[in-house]
Amino acid sequence: MAKISVSDIYTDGFDVYISGLDTGYQFSDRTVAWYLNGSLDGYGDDLPANASRGGDYSFTGLRAGKKYTVKAVIEFTDHSGYRPVTLTKSITTEEEPIQIEPWNWDISNGSYTNGKAYLTTNSLKALTSRGPTTDFSYLVWNDLCEKISELR
Fold first, then answer.
1. Best exposed site among 16, 99, 109, 122 by fewest CB in 10 Å?
2. Can you tell me the distance from the alpha carbon of 109 to that of 144, in angstroms, rounded to the nearest whole number?
3. Residue 65: helix, strand or coil by DSSP?
4. Nearest CA to 28 among 77, 81, 83, 87?
5. Residue 51: CB atoms within 10 Å
6. Three-class SS of residue 79?
7. Which tens digits make up the pLDDT trace of 64-116?
8. Can you give the pLDDT at residue 2?
9. Residues 35, 73: contact at Cβ < 8 Å?
10. Where does residue 81 rank: exposed (0-12), middle (13-18), buried (19+ CB within 10 A)?
11. Mind listing the pLDDT tens digit for each residue in 5-39?
12. How far is 130 from 127, CA to CA, in rounded Å?
């Protein structure tokens, strides 16, 4: 039984094709119209005779992490005895990977120290050399809390 199959999914699109085609169909007159959320997006590769798969198509320029409804309409151009075949599938694009800058004790790590790297390095010294807690800047503490919130 024919169905829409997915060969790859990206953050901004996906690649699809038709699988499970009737390999006994001996004419090369089938085309595939691809629809995205109800609107024609384009035409896939023609389906050759005796093929079990085909109609490859790429949807691009999509939003990350969004669910799309894909419809494929297989049309028979030379054989009026065949009705178009409609297939539907929901596909969700990949989420954008979250990128978080690692904490670095040699630089300013957030909006509180705002370019004052010496506050971060002094705070590290206070921790590692068991110095007075007054050497650990509250601004660095706030940056640490900000980083934890970013990770969450």
1. 99
2. 8
3. coil
4. 77
5. 18
6. coil
7. 999 999 999 999 887 767 889 999 999 999 999 888 889 999 988 888 888 89
8. 94
9. yes
10. exposed
11. 999 999 999 999 999 998 998 888 899 999 999 99
12. 5
Residue type, 42: G
Please give the backbone phi and psi of residue 75, each rounded to the nearest 5 degrees, phi first: -110, 150
Rounded mean pLDDT, 124-152: 89
Return the residue matching tokens 């940056």. 143
Instruction: Give the tokens for residue 80.
Output: 């009026």
Residue 80, pLDDT score: 67
Residue found by looking up tokens 């699809």 in the block: 16
Sheet of 30-36, strands arranged across: 39-43, 30-36, 67-76, 85-92
Token representation of residue 37: 């959320």
Alpha carbon 26 to chain centroid distance?
38
